[in-house]
Q: What sequence folds into this?
């Protein structure tokens, strides 16, 4: 099923996972994670794609099992920076052969040591990947794209970022998933400004439970998102107590989600970081809220 059809029973609940990075190449631990996530009946699970195609086979394998063995819709992330058309065709053929109907089309993070000014490349922006897939695989995949409530770090302004976002949607992205944010006002601003510019596709909110102070500060720095005072005060107070920090992060994320659903969000995408406990506790704590939104639970 295409995610755009699931979005008609809004709000959707979905999870993001990443292929485990084990030195011996064993990724079997991810299936214990999916066993548990499946019990929460998500609308879909998305699987990330390593910078420069470093996880291609694992992304396809995991997405394929989610779809064909767990009978849950899978979204395969796919990035185009540093990719050739032949490489993209190989991945897309393989996704198609495995009945995967949904692709999150990204430019992708720059691989280590990659210099965008010097490296030869076929594709510069995600909109070009959307264009490539739409032309080569008509009516095959439901495409989606990333968007940035606090503006992408390379964009000069919100205005420029939204012009680029419109191009991505015009090239085939049927819905969008946001970068993490901890202040819902940035999400509401993005939706308002997008609608003004004729970007009318569903915008799913990406939420990351801030259960570990160190990784939270790191991710916030990398993604350029602000940490509101009340969250940073709690982090400061509880950062040396991992159990208390977990409660801070889960409760903060839960409150964000309740506010978003109250205000009509199209969907919630939990960046699980492969952490089953957090995803389970948050989902269970809003089960009645989700049930009251006409979701099939
Ligand atoms: P683009 O949409 O191409 O935008 C990149 C920059 O270029 C922006 O500043 C934009 O404003 C500008 N731009 C875009 N089009 C144009 C244009 N036509 N003209 C001028 N400027 C333009 N990374 C991974 O490597 N693997 C993953 O699995 C992954 N999953 C992600 C999932 C989500 C939900 C999100 C939000 C991000 C994810 N990322 C992933 C990170 C993402 O690849 C980076 O944020 C990357 O820097 C930008 O990707 P993009 O697809 O948004 O790029």
A:
């Amino acid at each position: 099923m295409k995610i755009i059809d699931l979005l008609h029973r809004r709000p959707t609940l979905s999870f993001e996972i990443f292929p485990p990075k084990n030195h011996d190449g064993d990724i079997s631990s991810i299936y214990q994670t999916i066993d548990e996530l499946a019990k929460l009946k998500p609308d879909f699970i998305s699987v990330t794609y390593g910078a420069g195609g470093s996880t291609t086979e694992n992304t396809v394998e995991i997405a394929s099992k989610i779809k064909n063995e767990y009978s849950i819709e899978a979204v395969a992330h796919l990035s185009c920076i540093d990719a050739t058309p032949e490489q993209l065709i190989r991945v897309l053929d393989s996704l198609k052969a495995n009945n995967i109907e949904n692709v999150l089309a990204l430019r992708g993070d720059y691989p280590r040591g990659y210099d965008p000014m010097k490296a030869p490349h076929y594709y510069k922006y995600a909109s070009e990947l959307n264009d490539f897939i739409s032309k080569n695989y008509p009516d095959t995949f439901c495409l989606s794209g990333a968007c940035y409530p606090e503006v992408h770090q390379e964009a000069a302004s919100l205005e420029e970022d939204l012009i680029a976002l419109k191009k991505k949607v015009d090239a085939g992205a049927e819905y969008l998933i946001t970068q993490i944010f901890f202040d819902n006002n940035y999400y509401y601003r993005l939706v308002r400004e997008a609608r003004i510019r004729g970007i009318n596709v569903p915008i799913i909110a990406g939420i990351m439970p801030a259960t570990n102070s160190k990784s939270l500060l790191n991710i916030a720095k990398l993604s350029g998102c602000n940490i509101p005072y009340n969250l940073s005060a709690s982090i400061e107070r509880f950062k040396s107590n991992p159990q208390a920090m977990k409660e801070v992060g889960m409760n903060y994320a839960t409150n964000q989600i309740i506010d978003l659903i109250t205000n009509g969000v199209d969907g919630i995408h939990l960046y699980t970081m492969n952490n089953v406990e957090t995803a389970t506790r948050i989902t269970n704590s809003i089960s009645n809220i989700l049930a009251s939104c006409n979701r099939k639970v």
